[in-house]
Amino acid sequence: MEEKNKPIGVMDSGVGGLTVLKQMVELCPQEDYIYIGDTKNLPYGEKSKEELISIAKKIFDYFETRQVKAVIMACNTTSATVYDEFKDKYSFTIYPLIQIASKCITMDKKLTKIAVMATKATVNSHKYKQELQKSNPNVEVFEQACPMWVPIVEKNITDFDEKQVICEYLDNVLEFNPQKIILGCTHYPYLLNRIEKYAAKDLFINPARIFANYVTADLKNNNKLKQLKNTQRKGHIEYFASASPEEFKKNAEIFMPHTKVPELISL
Ligand code: DGL
């Protein structure tokens, strides 16, 4: 198959990566996508690096059988913990979220105080701090783990004690007095309208759009994008989940209306 015509793989532990897929579909509607939500193994943020490597290998191996041209790691946790292990091992390009988003965010040199809200595994890896400071050594970074948030999104819990669940983490972050707060887990934008009640709206950065912009530009520069014949979407999306496909569909529709029930994939 000609490189351009191959699909793009997108991966996450669940529905979080759809916040990135949505942006990709807006920017590149002509492309075909294969989305894997590893709902059997979530939350990734509570897993060890070894566990995440073994899970990611299965996902990448599957993408290899599907002859994708690129894999978008729409997951901060795997970008932080397993990207280095796999970056040169497959025939496709792998795009890691944290590394790319950090590079883009630090282009604004006025940003010298940044907070990151992320999973436990991402925070423990200090990958955001390393990557932000790689591009701008003057930036001060505060990282806060928010372990309650991913289960709330995945279980679609709406009647939680909002102030307690949000401020438990947000208060520490606000005390640092950051210029910006990166939502360093792709599940968190699902809670954004609730989080924003407790802090100024323009403090938050959802890196999905800048990440998708970068991936799109890179695919284009490498002549790997299909031709966009007209503004009508022509590509299609295949969804896979490793558990609870019906629940996945229900949550997915918040970001991707008309999502089909995903096919079960064994991971
Ligand atoms: N959405 C993922 C991230 O961006 C993983 C969340 C999880 O499963 O803990 O980190």
Q: Domains counted in the coordinates: how many?
A: 2
CATH class division of the largest domain: Alpha Beta
Ions and ligands: D-glutamic acid
The biggest beta sheet reads: 6 strands, parallel
Rg, please? 18 Å
Low-confidence stretches: none
Helix and strand content put the structural class at alpha/beta
**Looking across the biggest beta sheet, what order are the strands in?**
4-3-1-2-9-10
> Can you tell me the CATH topology of the largest domain?
Rossmann fold
Mean pLDDT: 96
Morphology call: globular
Strand content: 15-25%
Put simply, the count of helices is: 12
Distance between the termini: 26 Å
Helix content: 40-55%
Q: How many individual β-strands?
A: 10
In the CATH hierarchy, what is the architecture of the largest domain at level 2?
Answer: 3-Layer(aba) Sandwich
Helix-strand string: EHEHEHHEHEHHEHHEHEHEHE
Q: Any chance you could write out the topology, listing elements then pairs?
A:
Elements: E1 8-12, H1 18-27, E2 33-37, H2 49-65, E3 70-73, H3 76-81, H4 83-86, E4 93-96, H5 97-105, E5 113-118, H6 120-125, H7 127-135, E6 140-145, H8 149-154, H9 162-175, E7 180-183, H10 192-195, E8 204-205, H11 208-221, E9 237-241, H12 245-252, E10 263-264
Parallel strand pairs: 1-2, 1-3, 2-9, 3-4, 5-6, 5-7, 7-8, 9-10
Give an overview of the whole structure.
The chain is α/β, with parallel strands linked by helices and 267 residues long. It folds into two domains: 3-97 and 209-264, Rossmann fold; 100-207, Rossmann fold (3-Layer(aba) Sandwich), CATH 3.40.50. The protein has twelve helices and ten strands. It has helices at 18-27, 49-65, 76-81, 83-86, 97-105, 120-125, 127-135, 149-154, 162-175, 192-195, 208-221, 245-252, and strands spanning 8-12, 33-37, 70-73, 93-96, 113-118, 140-145, 180-183, 204-205, 237-241, 263-264. Strands 4-3-1-2-9-10 form a six-stranded parallel beta sheet. A four-stranded parallel beta sheet has the order 6-5-7-8, sandwiched between helices. Strand 9, helix 12 (245-252) and strand 10 (263-264) form a beta-alpha-beta unit. Helix 5 runs parallel beside helix 7 and helix 5 crosses helix 11. The longest helix is centred in the first third of the chain and has 17 residues, at 49-65. The protein is globular, with a radius of gyration of 18 Å. The two termini are 26 Å apart. The model has no long low-confidence stretch (mean pLDDT 96). The structure holds D-glutamic acid. D-glutamic acid binds next to helix 3.
